Amino acid sequence: MTFVDEMKNAVTVRAALLVIGVLGLMVAFIASYAGAFHSPKPKDIPFAVVAPQQISGPLTQRLGSLPGGPLDVRTAKDEAGAARQLRDRSIDGALIVDPRGTTDKLLVASGGGASLAQAVEAIATAAEKAQQRTVKVTDVAPAAEGDSRTLSSFYLVVGWCVGGYLCAAILAISAGARPANTHRALVRLLVLAVYSIAAGLLGSLIIGPVLGALPGSYISLAGLGALVVFAVGATTLAFQGLAGVVGIGLAILVIVVLGNPSAGGAYPYPLLPPFWRTIGPGLPPGAGTWAARSIAYFRGEAVTWPLLVLSIWAVLGSAVTVAMATFRRDREDGPVGAGRPVAPTP
Q: Mean pLDDT throughout 209-214?
Protein backbone atom coordinates (compact mmCIF):
# COMPACT_ATOMS: atom_id res chain seq x y z
CA MET A 1 0.00 0.00 0.00
CA THR A 2 1.38 3.38 -1.01
CA PHE A 3 1.82 6.34 1.29
CA VAL A 4 -1.05 8.13 -0.46
CA ASP A 5 -3.32 5.14 0.18
CA GLU A 6 -2.27 5.11 3.84
CA MET A 7 -3.10 8.80 4.09
CA LYS A 8 -6.52 8.24 2.53
CA ASN A 9 -7.24 5.46 5.01
CA ALA A 10 -5.98 7.43 7.99
CA VAL A 11 -7.59 10.79 7.11
CA THR A 12 -10.82 10.85 5.13
CA VAL A 13 -11.71 13.76 2.87
CA ARG A 14 -14.42 14.76 5.34
CA ALA A 15 -11.94 14.74 8.23
CA ALA A 16 -9.47 16.79 6.22
CA LEU A 17 -12.13 19.39 5.44
CA LEU A 18 -13.11 19.56 9.10
CA VAL A 19 -9.46 20.04 10.11
CA ILE A 20 -9.16 22.87 7.59
CA GLY A 21 -12.31 24.36 9.06
CA VAL A 22 -10.84 24.19 12.56
CA LEU A 23 -7.69 25.91 11.29
CA GLY A 24 -9.87 28.67 9.87
CA LEU A 25 -11.66 29.04 13.22
CA MET A 26 -8.31 29.33 14.99
CA VAL A 27 -7.16 32.09 12.64
CA ALA A 28 -10.49 33.89 13.03
CA PHE A 29 -10.24 33.56 16.83
CA ILE A 30 -6.81 35.19 16.91
CA ALA A 31 -7.81 37.92 14.46
CA SER A 32 -11.05 38.72 16.29
CA TYR A 33 -9.66 38.89 19.83
CA ALA A 34 -6.46 40.70 18.84
CA GLY A 35 -8.39 43.06 16.59
CA ALA A 36 -10.81 43.99 19.36
CA PHE A 37 -8.36 44.26 22.24
CA HIS A 38 -4.92 45.20 20.92
CA SER A 39 -5.44 48.98 20.96
CA PRO A 40 -8.54 50.20 22.79
CA LYS A 41 -9.37 53.85 22.07
CA PRO A 42 -12.30 55.85 23.46
CA LYS A 43 -14.72 57.06 20.82
CA ASP A 44 -18.04 58.89 21.23
CA ILE A 45 -18.47 58.15 24.93
CA PRO A 46 -21.87 59.58 25.94
CA PHE A 47 -20.96 62.46 28.26
CA ALA A 48 -23.00 65.25 29.89
CA VAL A 49 -22.00 68.73 31.03
CA VAL A 50 -23.75 70.68 33.79
CA ALA A 51 -22.65 74.33 33.78
CA PRO A 52 -24.03 77.87 33.76
CA GLN A 53 -25.36 78.93 30.38
CA GLN A 54 -22.48 81.29 29.61
CA ILE A 55 -19.99 78.47 30.20
CA SER A 56 -21.95 75.48 28.90
CA GLY A 57 -21.77 76.29 25.17
CA PRO A 58 -18.01 76.88 24.84
CA LEU A 59 -17.22 73.98 27.22
CA THR A 60 -19.43 71.55 25.32
CA GLN A 61 -17.84 72.59 22.05
CA ARG A 62 -14.33 72.27 23.46
CA LEU A 63 -14.91 68.81 24.92
CA GLY A 64 -16.69 67.65 21.78
CA SER A 65 -13.76 68.67 19.60
CA LEU A 66 -11.03 66.86 21.54
CA PRO A 67 -8.56 65.00 19.27
CA GLY A 68 -9.93 61.61 18.22
CA GLY A 69 -13.48 62.48 19.25
CA PRO A 70 -13.47 60.52 22.54
CA LEU A 71 -16.63 62.21 23.89
CA ASP A 72 -20.16 62.58 22.57
CA VAL A 73 -21.11 65.64 24.60
CA ARG A 74 -24.55 66.88 25.57
CA THR A 75 -25.84 69.11 28.37
CA ALA A 76 -27.83 68.18 31.46
CA LYS A 77 -30.04 70.48 33.51
CA ASP A 78 -28.45 69.79 36.90
CA GLU A 79 -26.37 67.28 38.83
CA ALA A 80 -29.39 65.20 39.80
CA GLY A 81 -30.41 64.90 36.16
CA ALA A 82 -26.90 63.91 35.12
CA ALA A 83 -26.75 61.27 37.87
CA ARG A 84 -30.12 59.95 36.76
CA GLN A 85 -28.85 59.58 33.19
CA LEU A 86 -25.81 57.70 34.48
CA ARG A 87 -28.01 55.31 36.43
CA ASP A 88 -30.27 54.62 33.46
CA ARG A 89 -27.16 54.09 31.30
CA SER A 90 -27.90 56.94 28.88
CA ILE A 91 -24.44 58.43 29.52
CA ASP A 92 -21.12 57.16 30.88
CA GLY A 93 -19.85 60.32 32.56
CA ALA A 94 -20.80 63.85 33.55
CA LEU A 95 -18.86 66.99 34.42
CA ILE A 96 -20.45 69.28 37.01
CA VAL A 97 -18.80 72.68 36.69
CA ASP A 98 -18.34 74.88 39.76
CA PRO A 99 -18.03 78.46 38.45
CA ARG A 100 -17.03 79.73 41.90
CA GLY A 101 -13.86 77.65 42.14
CA THR A 102 -11.32 75.66 40.14
CA THR A 103 -12.38 72.15 41.13
CA ASP A 104 -15.23 70.50 39.25
CA LYS A 105 -17.07 67.25 39.98
CA LEU A 106 -16.85 64.29 37.62
CA LEU A 107 -19.57 61.65 37.85
CA VAL A 108 -18.81 58.13 36.63
CA ALA A 109 -20.43 54.70 36.97
CA SER A 110 -17.75 52.04 37.29
CA GLY A 111 -20.39 49.30 37.50
CA GLY A 112 -20.82 49.75 33.76
CA GLY A 113 -17.17 48.90 33.17
CA ALA A 114 -14.08 49.81 35.16
CA SER A 115 -11.97 50.46 32.06
CA LEU A 116 -14.63 52.82 30.68
CA ALA A 117 -14.87 54.79 33.94
CA GLN A 118 -11.09 55.09 34.01
CA ALA A 119 -11.04 56.31 30.41
CA VAL A 120 -13.66 58.96 31.20
CA GLU A 121 -11.66 60.10 34.22
CA ALA A 122 -8.44 60.30 32.22
CA ILE A 123 -10.05 62.33 29.42
CA ALA A 124 -11.81 64.75 31.76
CA THR A 125 -8.74 65.19 33.95
CA ALA A 126 -6.54 66.03 30.96
CA ALA A 127 -9.12 68.44 29.53
CA GLU A 128 -9.54 70.20 32.85
CA LYS A 129 -5.80 70.39 33.43
CA ALA A 130 -5.42 72.23 30.13
CA GLN A 131 -7.70 74.92 31.62
CA GLN A 132 -5.84 75.00 34.97
CA ARG A 133 -8.71 73.19 36.66
CA THR A 134 -9.01 69.91 38.56
CA VAL A 135 -11.75 67.32 39.01
CA LYS A 136 -13.09 65.38 41.98
CA VAL A 137 -14.49 61.99 40.99
CA THR A 138 -17.77 60.64 42.35
CA ASP A 139 -18.85 57.10 41.45
CA VAL A 140 -22.66 56.93 41.36
CA ALA A 141 -22.77 53.18 40.59
CA PRO A 142 -19.59 51.70 42.05
CA ALA A 143 -18.48 48.15 41.36
CA ALA A 144 -18.89 45.62 44.14
CA GLU A 145 -15.88 44.77 46.30
CA GLY A 146 -15.75 41.28 44.81
CA ASP A 147 -15.95 42.64 41.25
CA SER A 148 -13.24 45.27 41.23
CA ARG A 149 -12.59 45.04 37.47
CA THR A 150 -16.30 44.56 36.66
CA LEU A 151 -15.53 41.39 34.71
CA SER A 152 -17.71 39.04 36.76
CA SER A 153 -20.81 39.70 34.66
CA PHE A 154 -18.85 38.99 31.47
CA TYR A 155 -17.38 35.74 32.80
CA LEU A 156 -20.80 34.68 34.05
CA VAL A 157 -22.35 35.20 30.61
CA VAL A 158 -19.41 33.50 28.87
CA GLY A 159 -19.93 30.49 31.12
CA TRP A 160 -23.63 30.41 30.27
CA CYS A 161 -22.83 30.65 26.55
CA VAL A 162 -20.34 27.79 26.75
CA GLY A 163 -22.89 25.68 28.60
CA GLY A 164 -25.54 26.47 26.01
CA TYR A 165 -23.64 25.41 22.92
CA LEU A 166 -21.99 22.40 24.58
CA CYS A 167 -25.35 21.09 25.77
CA ALA A 168 -26.87 21.53 22.31
CA ALA A 169 -23.86 19.89 20.64
CA ILE A 170 -24.05 16.88 22.94
CA LEU A 171 -27.79 16.50 22.41
CA ALA A 172 -27.34 16.45 18.64
CA ILE A 173 -24.12 14.47 18.29
CA SER A 174 -25.28 11.74 20.64
CA ALA A 175 -27.97 10.71 18.14
CA GLY A 176 -26.87 12.30 14.88
CA ALA A 177 -25.92 15.78 13.77
CA ARG A 178 -29.30 16.41 12.13
CA PRO A 179 -32.63 15.84 13.90
CA ALA A 180 -34.34 12.85 12.30
CA ASN A 181 -37.85 14.13 12.92
CA THR A 182 -39.92 16.89 14.52
CA HIS A 183 -40.50 14.89 17.69
CA ARG A 184 -36.77 14.53 18.33
CA ALA A 185 -36.22 18.25 17.72
CA LEU A 186 -38.96 19.20 20.19
CA VAL A 187 -37.60 16.81 22.81
CA ARG A 188 -34.13 18.33 22.45
CA LEU A 189 -35.54 21.84 22.84
CA LEU A 190 -37.45 20.73 25.94
CA VAL A 191 -34.33 19.18 27.47
CA LEU A 192 -32.40 22.35 26.58
CA ALA A 193 -35.05 24.47 28.32
CA VAL A 194 -34.79 22.43 31.54
CA TYR A 195 -31.00 22.57 31.37
CA SER A 196 -31.15 26.35 30.80
CA ILE A 197 -33.20 26.92 33.94
CA ALA A 198 -30.78 24.83 35.99
CA ALA A 199 -27.80 26.65 34.46
CA GLY A 200 -29.30 30.05 35.24
CA LEU A 201 -30.03 29.14 38.84
CA LEU A 202 -26.62 27.56 39.48
CA GLY A 203 -24.61 30.26 37.70
CA SER A 204 -26.35 33.01 39.65
CA LEU A 205 -25.87 31.09 42.89
CA ILE A 206 -22.12 30.85 42.33
CA ILE A 207 -21.57 34.45 41.18
CA GLY A 208 -23.81 35.93 43.88
CA PRO A 209 -24.36 34.20 47.23
CA VAL A 210 -21.32 31.90 47.01
CA LEU A 211 -18.59 34.25 45.72
CA GLY A 212 -20.18 37.62 46.38
CA ALA A 213 -18.89 38.81 43.00
CA LEU A 214 -22.11 40.37 41.74
CA PRO A 215 -24.87 42.19 43.63
CA GLY A 216 -28.40 42.52 42.31
CA SER A 217 -31.47 40.30 42.23
CA TYR A 218 -30.66 36.59 42.28
CA ILE A 219 -33.92 35.69 40.54
CA SER A 220 -33.40 38.31 37.82
CA LEU A 221 -29.87 37.08 37.12
CA ALA A 222 -31.08 33.46 37.09
CA GLY A 223 -33.83 34.35 34.61
CA LEU A 224 -31.31 36.14 32.42
CA GLY A 225 -29.03 33.11 32.59
CA ALA A 226 -31.81 30.75 31.50
CA LEU A 227 -32.54 33.00 28.51
CA VAL A 228 -28.86 33.29 27.53
CA VAL A 229 -28.29 29.53 27.72
CA PHE A 230 -31.44 28.69 25.80
CA ALA A 231 -30.75 31.33 23.12
CA VAL A 232 -27.23 30.01 22.51
CA GLY A 233 -28.32 26.36 22.69
CA ALA A 234 -31.25 26.85 20.29
CA THR A 235 -28.97 28.72 17.90
CA THR A 236 -26.48 25.85 18.00
CA LEU A 237 -29.23 23.30 17.31
CA ALA A 238 -30.40 25.44 14.39
CA PHE A 239 -26.89 25.58 12.91
CA GLN A 240 -26.59 21.81 13.29
CA GLY A 241 -29.92 21.33 11.55
CA LEU A 242 -28.68 23.49 8.69
CA ALA A 243 -25.11 22.19 8.36
CA GLY A 244 -24.77 18.98 10.37
CA VAL A 245 -21.66 18.65 12.50
CA VAL A 246 -20.21 21.74 10.79
CA GLY A 247 -22.94 23.66 12.60
CA ILE A 248 -20.97 23.31 15.83
CA GLY A 249 -18.16 25.27 14.19
CA LEU A 250 -20.63 27.90 12.98
CA ALA A 251 -21.98 28.29 16.51
CA ILE A 252 -18.45 28.73 17.85
CA LEU A 253 -17.77 31.31 15.13
CA VAL A 254 -20.82 33.40 16.06
CA ILE A 255 -20.77 33.02 19.85
CA VAL A 256 -17.06 32.69 20.69
CA VAL A 257 -15.06 34.17 17.83
CA LEU A 258 -17.35 37.13 17.13
CA GLY A 259 -19.52 37.35 20.24
CA ASN A 260 -17.05 37.25 23.13
CA PRO A 261 -14.58 39.99 22.07
CA SER A 262 -17.47 42.27 21.09
CA ALA A 263 -19.43 41.69 24.31
CA GLY A 264 -18.13 44.79 26.08
CA GLY A 265 -16.59 42.74 28.89
CA ALA A 266 -12.98 43.77 29.27
CA TYR A 267 -13.56 46.91 27.18
CA PRO A 268 -17.10 48.36 26.98
CA TYR A 269 -18.44 49.40 23.57
CA PRO A 270 -17.05 52.98 23.43
CA LEU A 271 -13.53 51.54 23.75
CA LEU A 272 -13.89 48.91 21.00
CA PRO A 273 -13.09 49.36 17.29
CA PRO A 274 -16.13 50.16 15.09
CA PHE A 275 -16.78 46.63 13.78
CA TRP A 276 -16.92 44.99 17.23
CA ARG A 277 -18.81 47.94 18.72
CA THR A 278 -21.45 47.52 16.01
CA ILE A 279 -22.02 43.77 16.19
CA GLY A 280 -21.67 43.35 19.97
CA PRO A 281 -25.14 44.48 21.10
CA GLY A 282 -26.79 42.13 18.58
CA LEU A 283 -25.04 38.93 19.70
CA PRO A 284 -25.91 36.84 22.79
CA PRO A 285 -22.67 37.48 24.76
CA GLY A 286 -22.97 41.25 24.35
CA ALA A 287 -26.68 41.36 25.13
CA GLY A 288 -26.16 39.11 28.15
CA THR A 289 -23.21 41.09 29.53
CA TRP A 290 -25.05 44.41 29.22
CA ALA A 291 -28.16 42.98 30.90
CA ALA A 292 -26.15 41.35 33.72
CA ARG A 293 -24.42 44.64 34.54
CA SER A 294 -27.74 46.47 34.43
CA ILE A 295 -29.28 44.00 36.87
CA ALA A 296 -26.25 44.06 39.16
CA TYR A 297 -25.53 47.79 39.28
CA PHE A 298 -28.32 49.81 37.65
CA ARG A 299 -31.50 48.31 39.16
CA GLY A 300 -32.43 46.64 35.90
CA GLU A 301 -32.38 49.80 33.79
CA ALA A 302 -31.86 49.61 30.01
CA VAL A 303 -32.48 45.86 29.67
CA THR A 304 -35.34 45.95 27.16
CA TRP A 305 -33.14 45.83 24.07
CA PRO A 306 -30.72 43.09 25.24
CA LEU A 307 -33.61 40.91 26.43
CA LEU A 308 -35.30 41.39 23.06
CA VAL A 309 -32.07 40.41 21.28
CA LEU A 310 -31.74 37.24 23.34
CA SER A 311 -35.42 36.39 22.79
CA ILE A 312 -35.03 36.77 19.03
CA TRP A 313 -32.07 34.37 19.01
CA ALA A 314 -34.04 31.90 21.13
CA VAL A 315 -37.19 32.05 18.99
CA LEU A 316 -35.40 31.97 15.64
CA GLY A 317 -33.10 29.17 16.80
CA SER A 318 -36.06 27.08 17.95
CA ALA A 319 -38.05 27.79 14.78
CA VAL A 320 -35.17 26.85 12.47
CA THR A 321 -34.46 23.71 14.50
CA VAL A 322 -38.05 22.50 14.19
CA ALA A 323 -38.34 23.58 10.56
CA MET A 324 -35.19 21.72 9.52
CA ALA A 325 -36.37 18.61 11.34
CA THR A 326 -39.76 18.81 9.65
CA PHE A 327 -38.83 19.66 6.07
CA ARG A 328 -35.37 18.22 5.52
CA ARG A 329 -35.55 15.46 2.96
CA ASP A 330 -32.32 13.73 3.86
CA ARG A 331 -33.40 11.74 6.95
CA GLU A 332 -31.15 8.75 6.56
CA ASP A 333 -27.92 10.14 8.07
CA GLY A 334 -26.59 8.00 10.88
CA PRO A 335 -24.86 9.34 13.99
CA VAL A 336 -21.76 11.42 13.51
CA GLY A 337 -18.83 9.19 12.68
CA ALA A 338 -20.99 6.28 11.61
CA GLY A 339 -20.96 4.80 8.14
CA ARG A 340 -23.94 3.78 6.05
CA PRO A 341 -26.22 1.18 7.62
CA VAL A 342 -25.25 -2.36 6.76
CA ALA A 343 -27.97 -4.22 4.86
CA PRO A 344 -29.33 -7.22 6.77
CA THR A 345 -28.16 -10.65 5.63
CA PRO A 346 -30.92 -12.62 3.86
A: 96
